[in-house]
Amino acid sequence: MRLSNLHRLSVCVGAVVLLALSTPAAAEILRVRPLVRDGQVLVSFQLEQGFTDQVREFVKSGLRTTFTYTVELKLRVPAWVDRTVSIAVVSTTVEYDNLTRRHTISRTLDGRMEESRVVEDEAIVRQLMTNFERLPLFDTDLLEQNREYYVMVRAEARPRSGAALWPWGGSTSGMAKFTFIP
After folding, report:
1. CB contact at 8 A, 44 and 33
2. Is 47 exposed, middle or buried (0-12, 13-18, 19+ CB in 10 A)?
């Protein structure tokens, strides 16, 4: 009798874990879209649900808040470990000035400053922190013809508190495949 109850409990726990891992929200939190054009791999990605209430509180308190996106271009290798072709790091930092009520947003690519702006509207801050369109991150000179590649993006946020900014820990990731046909 006791073993039966233990078995039922383990089956219920397993079902809850499987349900949590298979929810569409978990699969779609970071959307990635690669596009090959004019000798470059252009990468678009969107971090849905990334600008949470907790992130908003961090920003409004004046804490410097940074979203770092590590973008990896990988070659799919059948029956072996996939090869990393190149890596790019995109960071977006926001600092809120409580006196002027303005946000200073800076974007860097591989440590080089790409853009800096001052905005008042929080919706623009959210968009600049979580949406990226057609970033020219990789040259097609690195790619072999008719091979399958994928772009993987991993997002992390700083500062971190005791509670994670996303339900799965300090980072989340997404990926998209493409075949290089010149």
Report:
1. yes
2. buried
Look at residue 137 in the predicted model and tell me its pLDDT: 97
- Structural domain boundaries of the chain? 28-180
Q: Give exposure, 127-142, as e/b (b: 16+ Cβ within 10 Å).
A: ebbbebeebebbeeee
Tens of pLDDT, residue by residue over 79-88, are 889 999 999 9
Residue type for position 39: G
pTM of the shown model: 0.79
How far apart CA 71 and CA 45 sit, in angstroms, is 10
Sheet bearing 30-37, strands edge to edge = 30-37, 40-47, 131-139
Backbone angles phi, psi at 13, to 5 degrees: -65, -45
Q: Residue 134: phi, psi to the nearest 5?
A: 50, 55
Tokens for 95?
């600092």
DSSP code, position 94? E
Contact 41, 140 (CB under 8 A): yes
- The backbone region for 76, taken as left when phi is positive above 0, alpha when psi lies in -120 to 50, beta otherwise, is beta
Q: Is the previous residue joined to 159 through a cis bond, with omega within 30 degrees of 0?
A: yes
Domain 28-180 matching CATH 2.60.120: the answer reads no
Spatial strand order of the sheet with 112-119 comes to 112-119, 102-109, 83-97, 65-75, 147-158, 171-180
Instruction: Compute the distance between CA of residue 135 and CA of residue 111 in angstroms, rounded to an integer.
Output: 15
